[in-house]
Every structure is written in structure tokens, then in C-alpha cells.
């Protein structure tokens, strides 16, 4: 074989890399073996993408608990190792709901559905479709408003329905029954995320097929029996919490979320094909969970005993930091005695060419600079620091409690939030380096034997290029009331300039009611830079209205 210069170079590099791998210390080899076992199990199809509140999440939880026990990490959850918490999935139609016309049952969810803001009611009546009288069901064909607005892109059918149902209720309707006998599509469906306030009467939509069957003859009198029952749909997520008690005054928290997207049911998949595929989440975040287990193993025998160690595998992160927010609101240790928190989210895909490890939270304590030196040539990657204590992962919940944090992340890649985020793409040697680097930081701080000082930093705004304007608030994704609760407010942005504070709940922007993330985003889209409008928000029981300028 004729060897060109380049081919020689490649070969040498290959030999070097394999020999340096072989030179791995026994302990490092063990870590890599363990990482493979953890990630291959957690990212296996059997765990169905570990969506919070599912069987797959439970299998992962049992695995982590098994490892904690094996290592000798004691339990520090609320139910031994687990700490369960409720995840609100919005509204659902209760099984006791029914709708019959002339003793024919309509199938709930298929032939009809009650809007989520319908109160629980039982109605029996014999109305005529064409007559709208008090204390009787009123029938409304949407054909007319649809026809009138077919060329109006701003026509909001949902809003039209809600406003006119309120009017009908005020004029005596006992229930509003909507249908659409026109050829125009209405795209109406039961929206579990609709958190708008309940109306005094039920509002029901009857499908086109059922309407064709029962409502063609407007003079007909129908024998109607209806029962509406709208409830909350909840799941139970589980944080898994382990502890090493070194009888120290302060505790270091290490965390990583272990939940992922399941089949993409929660709309947070990057897959745009609509296919229901398992999102294995090897890098996001089986890699961080595996690192958490291996760091627990290392710290169990480590001499760094000036702190206790708390290990938290969070769930519900993909829903909006549910698990870490729940823990920081319901801590199982005294948060005032927490020294600092280290979060690992996606540490398994160190890029072999750029070798960049980003370390966020650098600005949350002056002491970080004493143990993190981006110019340190001895470490086998390039450290890219970011000062902000907030970002799209669980450290944010701890930063909000004035705890110094660091966030370790090996970077985005094309498999992010896709079914293709699989174990065979993990850079195990890279992850080993990240684990050893984190252990170096812990050991160095242990030597200083101090409690880190906390510093507030700027808030990272999740850049939402879709919007021309934003308010500069960090929405609280766990809030299940009507409106958008501000979990953080960025200095100098429209909301803070208007006097809005953390904890306030925005309920209206201009003329647009805000009751869910969707309606908030729709309202934002109505404005451009420089626009002035009014904003209405709740602070406790008080409702405040003021002017806001984008
Ligand atoms: Zn993640």
C-alpha cells in the first residue's frame, strides 16, 4: 500500500489515541465501563424515552436507586429515595360526561366535546334548534361567522366562541351547543392547555358528522340530556435523591435530570414529521445521570469530606424544570446550608474537533474563578465559560434560591430532542474527562474549606427569534393558574420598566387576554418594538393595570 503524507499522519494519530486510551488508569476504565452500562440501559427502547410520570421513568428511577444502594449512598427523598410531585397536564373531559339526543349517545371526544371552561352541569330539555329561549339550550351554527371572516386572518374563532357564549349565558341560555354545517373547516378541538376561567354555562361543540345527523331540520324538537365534567389531568413525577453524610456544616448538591421526551407527546420534540417515535435521550440526559452516579461512587471514597453531598436525579425537567423547582420549594435539606450546586445536562457528546465544554454560572460566585481557569492547558478540553446563573436546565431553580451554581454542557448537536439521540453516539472518553474535571473542582474547593459567596448575574433570555418583542420575563412553566406567572424579571426590559416583579401574574396584554403560554405568545406577536400598550397583572389578590412600552 502506498502511503501519502496525510495517510501517515492519520495513522499516527489513530495509534496515539488508542495507546493513550489503553494508558487509561484502571479507575478511569471502570468509569467508562460503568458509563456505558448506565447510558445503554437508560437509553434503551424498553424505557420508552423516560417521559415524566410514565413506566419508563419508573424503570429509570429503580435503576438509579439500585446504583445508589450499590454504592452505599443513603436515601434523602420524601419516600425514601424518591420525592414525588404532581405534574399538571391541563384539563381533561371526565368519564362521567355524556350527551344524548333523542336517546342516542354521542361519543365523548369524537362526536362532541365540552370546552375546557365548561362548569360541571346536568341538563335535560326538549328544545327546538331554531328557538333561543331562557333556561333552555341554545344552538349556534358557526357557518355564519366562519363565512363572514373567511378572508380575515386575524379572526380568532376560539375568542369569538367564548365571548358570544358569555353573552348567550347572560341572556338565559342553559347550555350553548355549537356546530358547523358549512363547508368551511373550523379546526376546533379540546385544548387541555386552555386555562381560561370557567363560564356559568357549558359550551359544547358537536362534530360535523353528528350535526349533519341531528341538526339539519332547524324546526325539530330534540330530546337532550347532557352532563359535563371537566377535571385536571395529572401525572406523578419522581426526583431520586441520595446523600453522603460527612457530618459537615454545609452540603454540595450535584444534579442531573433523568427524564426525557417519551414519544414526543408534550410537543417538545424537534421531529416535525408527527411520527410517534421513542426519543432515547442518551445524551439528554442519560449522560448527565450516568455522570451523577459515577461522581457519587467517586465521592463516596473521596477524602474531600468538608461538605456533605446530595445527589438529585430530577424528573419533569423537559416539561419546564418541574422536578428541580419542586425540590427547591420542598427541600429535604436546609437550603441555607447548601454550599453550591453543580448541574450536568448533556455531557456525553464532547465534540472531538472543537473539544468545547461550556461551563455556565461562572458569575454566580467570586470563588469560581479560583478553581476554573479557561486557559488551563492541562485539561483535555476547551472550557467556554458563561456567567449567567440561569438557562434551560435545573441549575436555574437553585440560582433562584441564591445558591451558587455551575452548569456543565458539551454542546448542541443534530440529534438534540430527536429519536436519534442514541447511546452509540456518546463520546465516553470525553465524558470521563468531564467527570474528572468536575471532581477536580470539588476537591480544590474542599481544600479551601469555605462556603461560597453568592452573586446575582444577568438573566439569559431564551432567545425566541419568533417574536419581534418580549417582555423580559422568565415564565414559570409549573404555574397552573390562569395567566403567566413571572419566575424572573430582567432589569431594563419592558416588564421591569413597567414595575412588574417576580411572582406577578400577567393576565392581559393590550386587548388580548393572557391565560396560557399559547395566548401569551399570540398576544406578544401582535406588537412591535416601540409600541406602547396597557398590561394587566395580578399581585396576590390585587389586579394592577399599567402602561408598557416594548
Ligand atoms: Zn436536558
Keyphrases for this structure?
3 domains; alpha+beta; 13 helices; Glucose Oxidase, domain 1; Aminopeptidase; 9-stranded mixed β-sheet; binds zinc ion; 6-stranded antiparallel β-sheet; 27% helix; 550 residues
The CATH level-2 architecture of the largest domain is identified as 3-Layer(aba) Sandwich
Total of DSSP H or I helical runs spanning 4+ residues: 13
The major beta sheet can be summarized as: 9 strands, mixed
Instruction: Domain count, please report it.
Output: 3
CATH homology group of the largest domain: Zn peptidases
Bound molecules: zinc ion
Mean pLDDT: 91
Helical content stands at 25-40%
Low-confidence blocks of residues: none
Q: How does the overall form come out from the CA principal axes? A: elongated
| Named CATH topology of the largest domain | Aminopeptidase
Q: Beta fraction of the residues?
A: 15-25%
For the record, the CATH class of the largest domain is: Alpha Beta
Q: How many extended strands?
A: 23
Q: What is the first-to-last residue Cα distance?
A: 68 Å
